Amino acid sequence: MGNLKNSMKSLKMALLKYLPLCLAASLLGISLISKFTSAAAERYRSVHPITAVNVNGSAVTWESTGSPTILFLIEKADYLLIPLWVIFCVAAAGFIFYSRELKEPIGILMKASKKIADNELDFHVQYHKDNELGILCTAFEDMRGKLFDSNLEIWHHIEERRRLSAAFSHDLRTPLTVLSGYVELMQNYGDRLTAEKRDDILNKMQQQVSRLTHYTEKMNAVQKLEDISPMPKEVGLEELCSALGETGRLVAADKEFSISRFGNGAVYTDTELLMQVYENMVSNAVRYAESRIDVTVSTSDYKLCISVCDDGRGFSEEAVEKASKPFFRDEQNSDMHFGLGLYICKILCGKLGGDLIIENGENGGGKVTAEIFLQKLIKS
Hints:
The chain has helices at 2-47, 68-76, 78-117, 132-189, 195-220, 237-252, 271-288, 317-322, 341-351, and strands at 50-56, 59-64, 233-236, 256-262, 266-269, 292-300, 303-310, 354-360, 366-373, 377-378. By secondary structure, it is of the alpha+beta class. It has a five-stranded mixed beta sheet with strand order 4-6-7-9-8, with helices on one face. The longest helix is centred in the middle third of the chain and has 58 residues, at 132-189. It is rod-shaped, with a radius of gyration of 45 Å.
């Protein structure tokens, strides 16, 4: 507050700098006006001399070739000219003060106000004089910065919701594809299946529905993908690989599919998020594969690795670097997908304490590996 009071004096001091100039100009003007009117009156008298003087008692009158009224006006002109000159000097000092001290910051503030009114916040209010208007411009810049940050935060929030909605829509497609495969199987071969097989298929469909329900609830509870909280539980590696194989075959459709397991025991992780990662990896491989998809599941120490390989043309150098970025698409039929699958895998792998590795296989084709660092690995 003390600094503010000190700076509040500065405009007053700046105004006081112009007062001596105004006073000096006024005094000089008054002196010149007085001399000018006196000289003009003398000149008028010399041009129009007195021709007669009349004395009537105590009254004295004179006669001249000039007009007494004009002479009177010349003699008294300083009574009008001096106030006008003083007013002019004050006005001139005020104009100079405005031009040098007020015009620039007021113009800056007016432009800034118009830009803010038009919702244009990508600018800066810069005026560095240490006076009241300098403080006002600094306060205006602070306000602009806070508005900019607020709008940016709102934009980020909207963008996160859009990204989350896109990811949610994307992730619904694969479970729906799995369910569609089960429905098609029941429709085409239901009368040939044993009761036990039908019950097994219905049970798996129920599991898919339950997983979709849980995933929907989880996604509705978060504001962005990074807010997802894993809920780990123990699951046997053999059981996990069986679920991965079943889902992989349905997603691969007409592609040849194989899955290999290396390791035994049980793992401790969020299987719902893990399945989302896996389904996106297989869906990505289906788009690139010529005819075959191979999955490898292995455990070592506290790490679970799931690799999905295809026999397609492999990733380009750009794709290896950017395939896990949101909305990246590196294929001719890029309008067929959103470029979100591997990005979602990357985010979810991170939430599971791991990472996503994108590379090309030793024998060609693409290879995507999800490395999940487990909270604990339970060995049999």
